[in-house]
Design goal:
The chain is an alpha/beta fold. The protein has two domains: about 325 residues, Alkaline Phosphatase, subunit A, CATH 3.40.720.10; about 170 residues, Alpha Horseshoe (Leucine-rich Repeat Variant). Helix content is about 40%, strand content about 10%. It is built from 22 helices and twelve strands. It has an eight-stranded mixed β-sheet with strand order 4-3-5-1-6-7-2-8, sandwiched between helices. The protein has a four-stranded antiparallel β-sheet with strand order 9-10-11-12, covered by helices on one side. The protein starts with a helix and ends with a helix.
């Protein structure tokens, strides 16, 4: 009888808190988010012997350690958009790194919902939400001095603290001596075993240790103020690690993040797991916003695409989590991935591109420079050199036998069933969420002048299911099909014309019979189509008109058009010599991404002339 009464009271509390919000400041939990930048699971509690993280290890022993937590995007800005809204950046056109495209007014940043419910919300201090917004509408305070201490007496708080001591830039300059022994680190199989790589690994572990100490100081402050047992603490890394080939890439080290949640005894009714649990539940960043709302007694909005994994509105466990990659800094790409507890499936929609396109910021890391130099010198094995070669259309990794995810079994007949299952899951998600990635960025920026990308994806001309079937045929997933390319080159839909040209870049000389069809697109009304048509035409030997189109595009007043064009010019190899004047002019371009590609292209030309 007593158990029935307790169950009834708890059910009544949960219902009322979700429906009306919990009353009185002391009836609702405080929430502290502790976020470290650029960290994968290199922590002691995750079993890494070089991870000297006693504070986080202790936090894990008192809470729940999520072994299968993932960033939906492998870089900060689109990942943080996903976190702050509880929606997929791929659905809303906010996926390209550092873009400022609008989203529908109906989508609110979740701290504003907590604020409306009576919480004091403070952010210390990184935002980087990859869309247009007014910070004052979101936070009570967002600054390097923001803290929970400015709230009213008894007012519950939601506070975020970001630690950047592990951010990528810390590897740009090498510390001469590291506390971590370079000889004892375990390298990823795709990294060459060199002194430089071992040193960068060791230096990164040192930074992780320093980050743990900083977090320990913050937690001590919480304890000293008597708030530790009234505060639910989340710790997570804001995307994967920083060693070359991780951050920016949809692999395990690029998206697998540490996540720990400690819920005090007084709020134990909000979770089922025991303290010290190591949970294998699949969670991702899109789930964080609804989870916090669930814990705080705030109704989860219907537009949120994530699912709460704790609290009164907790959803059943997921079978899959989904990830996305588009333009990273100055380089375009289009990659999607799905992860189950056992498998990771990756779909490369632009397989003519290597994973390892030159990215100026990434190339500042000494080991990244060395990796590329060794590749150019022909001193890498097949696995190590694969990073710099065109990507496979599909990748499948069995993480049960290959925990690092480095052996692609997509072509292994033993895995055909798993391949079909994972592909179906990914495509189903892309269709359901109306993935906006098929729109070239130069065009989505134009679209955003009239409507949001999200609204455009609901229009009749945007058929994700059709695009998926076409791109499978266009770029070789289902065989090489110039006939399919020919048909779509004539399409009235600019998106189909664009992807027909991506297919042409993928199957290369096999589209030679279509060169006249492709030339007709040099005057297309959409700049993204014109530019790719020029790149393909140039590579098929039709250079004069192609050069004229590219030169004009390099002078466009639209920065995304210039960036698209300079990327095409860089891919022409020695043919970029014809654009030296224009490339030198671009070194003063106001858009830094354009400058980066122009500078790299000129450097390559200079080296080839020696």
């Amino acid at each position: 009888m007593r158990l029935l009464v307790k169950t009834f009271v708890l059910a009544l509390f949960v219902f009322s808190s979700v429906l009306f919000g919990q009353k009185k400041g002391n009836a609702r939990p405080n929430i502290l988010w502790v976020v470290s930048e650029d960290n994968t699971t290199l922590l002691g509690c995750y079993g890494d012997p070089n991870g000297r993280t006693p504070n986080l290890d202790k936090l894990a022993s008192e809470g729940i350690q999520y072994n299968n937590a993932f960033a939906n995007a492998p870089v900060c800005a689109p990942a943080r958009y996903t976190i702050i809204t509880g929606t997929y950046a791929s659905s809303y056109g906010t996926i390209n790194m550092r873009s400022k495209l609008p989203i529908p007014d109906s989508v609110k940043f979740f701290p504003s919902l907590l604020r409306k419910a009576g919480y004091y919300v403070a952010n210390n201090h990184k935002e980087d939400y990859n869309t247009v917004y007014d910070s004052k509408e979101i936070w009570d305070e967002s600054s390097p001095k923001a803290t929970w201490e400015k709230r009213k007496p008894g007012q519950p708080f939601f506070a975020v603290f970001n630690f950047n001591i592990t951010h990528e830039h810390v590897l740009f300059k090498s510390d001469s001596i590291t506390k971590t022994d370079p000889a004892k680190v375990s390298l990823m199989p795709y990294h060459p075993d060199t002194k430089t790589f071992r040193h960068d690994y060791a230096q990164y572990y040192d930074r992780v240790s320093q980050m743990d100490k900083q977090i320990g100081n913050l937690l001590k402050k919480l304890k000293d103020q008597g708030l530790y047992e009234s505060t639910i603490i989340f710790y997570y890394g804001d995307n994967g690690g920083i060693l070359p080939g991780s951050k920016r890439f949809l692999n395990e080290p690029g998206t697998h993040v540490p996540m720990i949640v400690r819920i005090p005894e007084k709020f134990k009714y909000l979770f089922d797991e025991k303290r010290g649990t190591k949970s294998n539940r699949l969670v991702s960043f899109v789930d964080l916003a609804p989870t916090v709302l669930s814990l705080c007694g705030v109704k989860i909005p219907s537009y949120m695409q994530g699912k709460a994994f704790l609290g009164a509105q907790k959803a059943p466990p997921k079978k899959y989590v989904f990830m996305y990659k588009q333009r990273m800094d100055e380089r375009f790409d289009f990659v999607r991935a799905v992860r189950s507890e056992r498998f990771r499936y990756v779909r490369n929609f632009m397989p003519f591109l290597p994973r390892g396109q030159h990215i100026e910021y990434l190339w500042r890391i000494p080991s990244m420079q060395e990796w590329y130099a060794l590749y150019k010198a022909g001193k890498l094995n097949k696995m190590q050199s694969g990073f710099f070669k065109p990507s496979p259309c599909e990748e499948l990794y069995d993480l049960q036998s290959d925990p690092n995810g480095v052996i692609n079994v997509a072509q292994d007949p033993k895995y055909s069933k798993a391949l079909k299952e994972m592909r179906k899951a990914l495509y189903g998600w892309m269709i359901k969420t109306r993935d906006a990635g098929f729109i070239p960025e130069a065009e989505v920026v134009r679209i955003a002048q009239k409507t949001t990308p999200r609204e455009f994806t609901k229009s009749k001309i945007y058929d994700v299911e059709k695009f998926l079937a076409e791109t499978d045929a266009l770029n070789g997933c289902n065989g090489n099909t110039p006939d399919e390319i020919k048909k779509l080159l004539r399409s009235k839909n600019f998106i189909e014309r664009y992807w027909a040209l991506v297919g042409a870049l993928t199957i290369k000389e096999k589209v030679l019979p279509l060169k006249n069809e492709i030339k007709t697109l040099l005057t297309d009304s959409y700049p993204s189509v014109r530019i790719l048509a020029a790149e393909v035409s140039f590579k098929l030997g039709e250079k004069k008109e192609a050069v004229a189109v590219l030169k004009k595009s390099l002078e466009s007043p639209e920065e995304t058009v210039r960036l698209t064009a300079v990327n095409s010019v860089e891919r022409l190899g020695k043919g970029a010599e014809l654009f030296k004047t224009e490339l030198n002019n671009l070194l003063n371009d106001p858009y830094r991404n354009v400058v980066k590609v122009a500078k790299w292209t000129l450097l390559k030309l200079k080296k080839e002339q020696k």
